[in-house]
Each structure stands twice: as C-alpha cells, then as structure tokens.
Target: Yeast cell wall synthesis Kre9/Knh1-like N-terminal domain-containing protein
Amino acid sequence: MFSLSALVLACITLDFVLHTNAALSVRSLYVIEPDSGSSCHGGQNCTVEWLDDGVRPLLSSFGVSIVGLYTGTQQLVQNIDPVDTSTTHSLTFTPIPEAGPDSDTYYICFTSTSVFDNGTAVMAFSPFFQLDQMTGSFGTPLESATASIAIPTSLMQTSAADSTSELSTIIVGTLSTSLSSLTSLSATTPSTPSSSSTTSRFSTSSAPESTSTSAAGSAATQSGTANGALSRTGAVSPLVMGVLSLCYFIVCVL
Model:
C-alpha cells in the first residue's frame, strides 16, 4: 500500500514538473530600453527599444503585438499603440500623468498576436523602470488610458507580407534570467510573471512585482522573464530525471 501511494505521489510530482517546464519554455524579444533604473516622465515622450534574442520565436514570428504599460502583477496602467516587432525595433509613447502615481514599478509588456504557447499568447516584458511627474493612482485606473486600441488593418497586412521573407536576426548573447511567478509575467527585478531580480524578463506567465517588494520579473499566464530571457530546450532537466528515477526506485524496490 505504501509503495502504491508513493508511486502515485511521484507521478503527480512528475506531471507538475513537466507542465512547469513547458510553461517556462517561451522566449521573446529582448527589451533594452527602458532599462532597469531608468526613468521616463509623465506627459513627455518615452522611448522603448528592443532586439531579437536570437532564439525562437524570432521577431519575424513574434510580429504584430499589443503593447501596454503595466505595474505589479500585470495590472494595466495605459495601452500603447500596437506595433509590428518584426519591422521596427522601437516605439515612442507618452505616459498619461493621470494614469498612475510616481513609481519605479512600471514595465512594458508586448503580447504577440501570432505566437501562442499551449493556447496562450506569448508575452515579452521590459525591466522595471521609473515614471515621475505622475499624478494618478494605481487604485483608480484611468478608463481613457486603459481603453483598448484597435490594431490597424494596414499593420496586419504589412506583417503578413513581410512574413514571406526572412529577416536578419540580431543576437544579443547569453542573457541572465530570473523566474517569475507563473501567474503573470513582468519586468527586471519585478516575468514571471513571481519573484526575481534581474534585468531580464519574458513570457508565458507572470508579471513582475516591484523591486521594493522584492517581487519577480515577469512574462505570466504567458511565460518568461522581464525581457524574454527564459530559454526553450529540448533536453530533460535534472529535476525531471530525478523524479523519473524516484518512480523507478519505488516500483522496483518498494
């Protein structure tokens, strides 16, 4: 009876590990600006820049994305005009002062409209950065700032045309990563999404939390880290091998 119970427990653990690995397998674009510790100002232009991290999905596949300014666990503060990440590597937006308070827990989230992982749209996050000259509150979202922005038909058509040609890839090297909580993905010290503290972040699952609360950088119900640095690998992790070995031991010995 003991061996049967142990076997069931081991199999449940293995299933959890395999699903967790799958959720953390997504890569995305790598946000280089705003960087951790940088600042933008309410009512003034703020520039966002990104590169291809060299790992699938490439920017040519990530394509047209819905973009937003977030805080905490993927709390939308302000929607930003959609952008085709495969044809441009930067965008400029103006933070609405009334949309939130002065804080260093803001981050940018990109949600792909063409790449999905297990049915969930793949997301990429910037590191956390600061916004000042803000006059609003996180507790009372500004409706006009969070209203949906339609994706222009011309943008979708351009993306479809460009998808037939291969784009060059800019590889930014090996990125340090931080796991974020699998409940939402977010930024640098704030993926995933839940607790991490690096300058990278991306994903399929959780958004970052503020560095002041030592929360993790994102990605999310989508998965990733603050700037999309989690890697997809085909190899079985040591943890999975360990659980498999435990199952074998229980069946053969107990």
User: Anything to note?
Assistant: The first helix runs from residue 2 to 23.
